[in-house]
Amino acid sequence: MGTMIRGFLRRSWSRTFLTALWLILIGELLPFVVAWFSLDYYTNRWIDNKTAQVMRISQQTASSSDWSLIDRIPIEGKSPIFQRYHQKVLSLSRQYFQKVGSIYLVRIEHGEEYDIDTGDSNFADFGKANGWELRAYESRKPTYTPVPFSDDSGTYLAAYTPILGKGRVVGLVAAEYDSAPLADFHEIVKSVFQLSMVPAILLSLLISYVLANRFAEPIEVVRDIEEVKKQGLGQLKGGKEPWGLTGRQLDVFESLSEDLTNAQIASKLSMSQETVKSHMKNILSKSGLKRWQLIVAARERLAQMDTSVGSV
Description:
- This protein is an alpha+beta fold.
- It has 2 domains: 1-217, PAS domain (Beta-Lactamase), CATH 3.30.450; 240-311, Orthogonal Bundle (Arc Repressor Mutant, subunit A).
- It has 9 helices and 7 strands; from the N terminus they run αααβββαββββααααα.
- It has helices at 2-11, 15-64, 80-96, 131-139, 180-236, 247-255, 262-269, 273-287, 291-311; strands at residues 101-109, 112-116, 124-128, 143-144, 149-151, 154-165, 168-178.
- Strands 1, 2, 3, 4, 5, 6 and 7 form a 7-stranded antiparallel sheet that branches.
- Strand 2 (112-116) and strand 3 (124-128) form a beta hairpin.
- Helix 2 (15-64) packs antiparallel against helix 5 (180-236) and helix 5 (180-236) packs across helix 9 (291-311).
């Protein structure tokens, strides 16, 4: 157990392990990053599509009827013009939006906004006009909210098309899309992402650490084998006894090429297991290698000898 843990920790600082760790960690965290940016991308795409939609509806509505009498409607009172415009607004809102938005008319006087909305019974004061409405009045060009806009009535995307009368802006045709559900959903998803990010990163680190060790272990073994071959080439060439081994030690060493146990080597060489154990201890001491490395070296020696015989 202790040997396994030490090997585990040793591999944790190897180049192979660190490379594997970063690759696996990046692979695990990449879906979170992609999901995070995808959320913003598709939200912005939805906003752009809905903004274009309300702008188109606002302009179509402005050109579909004559709204130029909006400046004749009395404040806080009812009139035939108000009734006619209110019915048109109600009909167009149902046609374009149903329950997700509405069309309404805006008149601005002294910075105050007066609306004819689907739920209005008179031309009432709705407070200060927003910046996009004032810009439409001043520029005489359609304007729109580039991001969801919130006020006392909710959160929405809106577009405003100026109504011209006698060469001046007398009001606006507004189209708005209710974006509160999207804004709420967007915030909820982001909150979930933020709350889950820390445990997700910690779990990813743990999983990456374990997987990287699993990946690094066979790679390190392969590297060790190659290193043993390189170190042993000088000792194993020419048929000479490597590391100054005696004849019987050499027999035991060469038997390792078959990956035999001490008992099997003893049986093959007609030795006692204690004698084989003693020879193995001396071989390990002289070579400075581990048993599995000696097996690799013995097989390398056998390959070298086969090559020499074949070339004669």
